[in-house]
Amino acid sequence: MSDHGTLVASGTLRFRRRLPGPVERVWAYLTEPDKRRRWLAGGPMDLRPGGAVELRFRNAELARDDDPAPDRYREAGNAGTVRGDIVRCEPPRLLAFTWGSAADAPEPASEVTIELEPDGDDVLLTLTHQRLAEGAQTLAVAGGWHTHLDILGDVLRGDEPRPFWRTHARVEAEYAARGLG
Length: 181
Known about the structure:
The protein is built from four helices and seven strands. It is an alpha+beta fold. It has a single domain, classed as Alpha-D-Glucose-1,6-Bisphosphate, Chain A, domain 4 (2-Layer Sandwich), CATH 3.30.530. Strand 4 and strand 5 form a beta hairpin. It is globular, with a radius of gyration of 15 Å. The relative contact order is 0.22.
């Protein structure tokens, strides 16, 4: 299984990762703010359809000895918040939420769906991010999810998390070379 996400339809990226289980442990890292902030973003998540999601990003704090944010991300730097709403929540197997809200951006929100499937002692995670604008947004999202999922794997294995911005710069260049964006 490749760690690289694939463009499965226009504006739709899909990532698949095999992670150490059990599924309840991976679910906790998706939904509990203190665990989620170790690999993605902290913030509250009301786990019911229509419940609010607030993801507070601090990418430079995910690992030690990271590079500064590249120029194109310097404005967000180490702080950013994405708000959305829970679309579906079926613990511990499926979580879907909007990425962004009408109050925060003029364009319609995109949507993230994360599915977990037990596979022996491991868990197969499938993340689908759809309704993305083609071009730079798809490239940035591909690099971002790829890097965050790498860090989730590190955290679940008990490894030192890799540096976010250094990893993101490398994988974003790989996606660009593959013609994404």
